Amino acid sequence: MSTIGVVAIVLAGLWLAALTVVVVLVVRQVALIMVRLERSTAASGDVNIAEPTYDYDPTTDGLAVGSRVPDDVAQELPELGSGTTQLLLLSAHCNPCREMAVQLGRRPVGAFGRVVALVPGTPALADGVVDALPAGIRPIRDPVATGIAKSLEIRRVPFALRVEGGVIAAKAPPLDSVVDLERFIVDGSDSPGGRVAVGARGEGEAGHAD
Question: Which domain of life is it from (predicted)?
Fold first, then answer.
């Protein structure tokens, strides 16, 4: 075998060895990322921050209408004690939540009154959601966001509560768009002729609009 042939074989071997090392490193990095995501999801507790869920149950999702805001939530969000506040749960790991944040960003500042957005999730993804929100909305990131959601017993995303003077006045089913949020704020309904959010009068079940 000529010298050129030997050199070619050696170079091919080195190339294959280098390629193998690269593949191993990539696989290892992907595995580390998956582990971190699993830990992050596990740390979220009962709040489903991975996927949106639409099987709304007004008897279990969110504290009952008429309930006072828990003390730990009131300490974190003292503004809930007076006036009206729309409290949103927009998970950083939920595509509809991210889209709603973008839609909110296109609305005039203050269009929804006082709004607080809970944004649980990994910092990088949460930053993307927060950056999309308009300046008038106060964002709350983890770990505080997940803690508040747990205290309010919210398990569905995206989700909205209306708090009036420290009391839960209404709660909405998961929202598909900013239009649904606007409808909830105005009359408590999440869709024309569809389900009606549990309202300030304390109805116990989701019904149908007339």
Answer: Bacteria
